[in-house]
Amino acid sequence: MLIAMRGLVIATVLAVTRIAVAEPAGAGAAEPGTTEASAAFQRGRELAKLGRFAEACVEFGRSYELDPALGTAVNLADCLERQGELPRAWLLFDRVARDAQGVQSRARLARERADALLARLATVIVRLREPAAPGLAVRIGDHQVTPAAAIRDLVEPRDVEVVATVPGRPAFRAVLHAVAGATVTVEIPALSAPPGDAAATRRRRPFVYLAGGLGAAGVIGLGASIGFGLQARGIYRAALDHECLATRITDDAGYRACQTQVDRAGTAADRATALAIAGAVLAAAAAAVFLAAPEETIQIAPVATARELGLGVVGRF
């Protein structure tokens, strides 16, 4: 009986030892908690060995969604780095470096990989003057970020567009030149302020140009009207100076000469009247176009990098 019990204990110890050895371990191993997550992880490992990293990333990502194990995070980060998705890879390596303190070798490896990636990325800092504005949405490059007083984001080196929007207000847009290993900063003014507050408002330029053209034509018309009016007045006075009065006309030639002068004066007066009306109509149209024109918001925001400092002028044009 004693011999049988000893045999049972030895068999049990051997079985437990085999299970422990069969489990994956080390910096790149996963600890998936579900069968489906484990299966996806294993498929990812096999695909990675074959160099099919695009497919491997999909499997590692599926496993990580089902069970965010640190070993899976390391494998997914490595796969993403190989695929050129450096910001996502850095986030995963950084998370493992911070959370895997119980496994120092894994934490050290993840920190080294994260630091190496950090030198290849650019840092964008967005400062919001009004981070709690209702409906505020902020986008850096191709992804949305959560509004905050200061937003820090890692991006691949390139020109990056920063967009901030508030419902019912013009959008803020700025293009930043992000350089590897450098930091670029942009400040976004309050976007929810009503017209006439912090942001300078101007009329849309096409409408302003149209209003200016109409106004200029109106001024020219009014000026010409004054000229023709003065001309009519001068002709009438000339007629009076020549005694062109009905009581003083003694022959047909004199009558015809006087009639010609009166007709010229009348024509000039008609032109003056027509031009005055046209000028007034054009001036009124210019005022209407200008007042009814949509407004554009002109905002000036500082843009700073480690090598340069400048101002960005943004708005709707």
Polypeptide structure, described:
The chain has 317 residues and is α+β, with helices and mostly antiparallel strands. It folds into 3 domains: 2-118, Alpha Horseshoe (Serine Threonine Protein Phosphatase 5, Tetratricopeptide repeat); 122-195 and 300-314, Immunoglobulin-like, CATH 2.60.40; 205-293. It has helices at residues 2-22, 35-49, 53-66, 70-82, 86-99, 104-118, 205-241, 252-292; strands at 122-128, 137-140, 143-145, 150-155, 159-165, 172-177, 183-188, 200-203, 295-304, 309-314. Strands 1, 4, 7, 8, 9 and 10 form a 6-stranded mixed β-sheet that branches. It has a 4-stranded antiparallel β-sheet with strand order 3-2-5-6, with no helix packed on it. The protein starts with a helix and ends with a strand.
List the helices and strands and how they pair.
Elements lengths: L1 H21 L12 H15 L3 H14 L3 H13 L3 H14 L4 H15 L3 E7 L8 E4 L2 E3 L4 E6 L3 E7 L6 E6 L5 E6 L11 E4 L1 H37 L10 H41 L2 E10 L4 E6 L3
Parallel strand pairs: 1-7
Antiparallel strand pairs: 1-4, 2-3, 2-5, 5-6, 7-9, 8-9, 9-10
Helix pairs in contact: 2-3, 3-4, 4-5, 5-6, 7-8
Brief digest:
The protein is an alpha+beta fold. The chain has helices at 2-22, 35-49, 53-66, 70-82, 86-99, 104-118, 205-241, 252-292; strands at residues 122-128, 137-140, 143-145, 150-155, 159-165, 172-177, 183-188, 200-203, 295-304, 309-314. Strand 2 (137-140) and strand 3 form a beta hairpin.
